[in-house]
Design brief:
It is a multi-pass membrane protein. Its main location: membrane. Keywords: Cell membrane, Membrane, Transmembrane, Transmembrane helix. The protein has one domain (2-518). It is globular, with a radius of gyration of 22 Å. It has helices at residues 7-21, 26-54, 76-103, 113-129, 133-151, 157-188, 193-201, 205-223, 232-235, 241-265, 273-292, 297-318, 321-352, 363-366, 368-382, 388-403, 406-435, 446-454, 474-492, 494-510, 512-518, and strands at residues 57-60, 71-74. Helix 12 (297-318) packs antiparallel against helix 17 (406-435). It is mainly α.
Length: 524
């Protein structure tokens, strides 16, 4: 089964090359993209099953033996992230196809969207599977280059301005990451993660702490943790709805994944636990206070995205099996729910002509299905029982109580406060956008679609303004329903998923399953 390990990276890259050759043939591009991502989901699911049964699966790229060559490692954590990310990207792709067909933009230069989207997918998958630091850096750079293009689709002034901020911040984090990689190699003579386990343990404590801090800083920027998150609310909401959704669901979680991987495998022992816990509570509280102050749905969701990154850091900072397993569970939950809410926000914008809450109203009566598609994941995000958001937070609270330290109790209180404020924020959206009477200036019928593309907050893409079509196209509704169902399914399978997360957490904390898989005879 090891031959399957590179496929989540190779297939999207080959698909991207093929869709580039098919520029000007949007129907063929769509079929290639859908086929590739469907196959990626199937391969990722197979890797999850096999890694759970047989342990980590390892491939030495190009036949170069580790540590000289690059290795790809599919352990339970990486495989689980692959399954969730591939499923989400497939649903978002269907949504974007539906939006493009409804807008009549098939013949525009935005056909570059498909190859770029597949390159982004390859970068995400490569980051999850990377078995050495430099290849992890390459995975980040692949997804970041693709994200630059996706963020500025349409080349409007607003998107170019937001994209510039995103590029500058991303380049800064990449430079810090690259410097950290250089320091690690200079100190240990290797970048292979399995080989670094012993070599980093042998370094002086001060040097290890410096290397750990550099990597945490780089990944903290990418994960948008406080106070390194100011760039996100101004960057994500300006992009098209499908792009915003996949960014919100995945890109920050790749940074969280890198933190989990390096903190458990390379730097065990909790030397930065206090820093992680303090950062977690500040990220939760400051992020949700920012969300409460917003009057635009997309910006509000962007701040909740920042806030809930704090829950994941909470679990990592506890350095316990329960805390780490709850953090992994919460990552899976949040990827799904946050993506769903941004897709629902795109539908709100299409139906109501705007995402500004003071210009909306009556959507529950005008579009009951849309109301359900927002209401269910919103409750899930707020952690209302019995949804997966509640179960993930319950696991984190239990881990904090078991820890018993002062900071852990502060995190428990901060997590509960954040959950209540999240409920208040989404209830405010529901009251203003869905429950109250329609705003007098709110368009109706097909006029809503035109307003959504000409609204001042999100400028129209070239070639789409003036088009008319269905208010809520089926190909936009269907993937949103699928993700809502996926979020509900996380509640149904919460028991097995928690068991899987616990197994993954135990393997991470033991470290030996990962090292033995890469070096069966022991690390050189």
């Amino acid at each position: 089964m090891t031959y399957l390990v590179p496929l989540p990276v190779v297939m999207p890259l080959l698909g991207a090359a093929l869709t580039l050759l098919l520029l000007g043939r949007p129907r063929a591009q769509r079929w290639v993209s859908l086929t590739v991502l469907t196959a990626t989901v199937a391969v990722a699911a197979t890797l999850l099953v096999r890694s759970s049964m047989d342990g980590p699966l390892v491939v030495e790229v190009g036949g170069w033996v580790a540590p000289l060559g690059i290795v790809l490692v599919a352990d339970q954590l990486a495989a689980l992230m692959l399954v969730v990310s591939a499923s989400v990207t497939l649903c978002v792709l269907v949504y974007s196809i539906g939006q493009g067909m409804a807008d009549g933009s098939e013949e525009t230069p935005l056909s570059v969207y498909h190859p770029t989207y597949l390159v982004l997918t390859a970068g995400v998958c490569n980051a999850f599977l990377s078995g050495d630091l430099f290849n992890l850096y390459v995975g980040f750079e692949i997804l970041l280059v693709a994200s630059y293009v996706l963020l500025t689709l349409g080349s409007t002034e607003t998107r170019i301005r937001a994209g510039t901020t995103y590029v500058v911040v991303s380049l800064l984090s990449s430079v810090i990451f690259l410097i950290a990689i250089g320091l690690v190699y200079a100190s240990t003579g290797t970048l292979n993660l399995a080989q670094l386990v012993d070599r980093l343990d042998a370094l002086p404590d001060d040097l290890r702490l410096l290397l750990q801090g550099m990597l945490l800083l780089a990944f903290g920027i990418k994960a948008a943790v406080f106070p390194l998150s100011a760039w996100l609310p101004d960057s994500y909401p300006t992009a098209p709805a499908p792009v915003t959704a996949v960014f919100a669901g995945l890109l920050t979680k790749v940074g969280v994944y890198a933190i989990i991987r390096t903190e458990t495998l390379l730097f065990p022992g909790g030397r930065t636990a206090t820093l992680l816990l303090v950062t977690a509570v500040l990220t939760m509280v400051v992020g949700i206070l920012g969300a409460v102050a917003q009057s635009d749905i997309k910006r509000l969701l962007s701040f909740t995205l920042i806030s809930h990154i704090g829950y994941m850091l909470f679990g990592v900072g506890l350095t316990s099996s329960l805390g780490l397993s709850a953090a992994i569970f919460y990552v899976v939950h949040h990827i799904t729910i946050q993506t769903t809410l941004f897709l629902a926000a795109g539908l709100v914008e299409r139906r109501g002509g705007s995402t500004a809450m003071d210009r909306l109203g009556g959507l529950a009566r005008l579009s009951p299905l849309l109301a359900v598609l927002f209401f269910v994941p919103a409750l899930n995000l707020a952690g209302i029982p019995p949804f997966s958001g509640f179960l993930g937070k319950l696991g984190l609270v239990q881990a904090g109580i078991d820890d018993g330290g002062p900071l852990a109790w502060i995190l428990v209180v901060g997590g509960l406060l954040t959950s209540l404020l999240t409920l208040y924020a989404v209830a405010r959206v529901w009251n203003l956008a869905f429950w109250r009477a329609p705003h007098p200036d709110m368009p109706a019928g097909d006029d809503a679609e035109q307003a959504a593309r000409t609204d001042g907050a999100v400028e129209p893409d070239e070639g789409t303004a003036g088009q008319s079509g269905a208010v809520l196209p089926k190909l936009m509704i269907a993937p949103t329903i699928a993700l809502v169902a996926f979020g509900l399914a996380l509640t149904v399978v919460a028991g097995p998923l928690f068991e899987l997360s616990t197994d993954a957490a135990d393997d991470l904390l033991r470290r030996t399953p990962y090292v033995d898989a890469v070096f069966p005879g022991g690390a050189p």
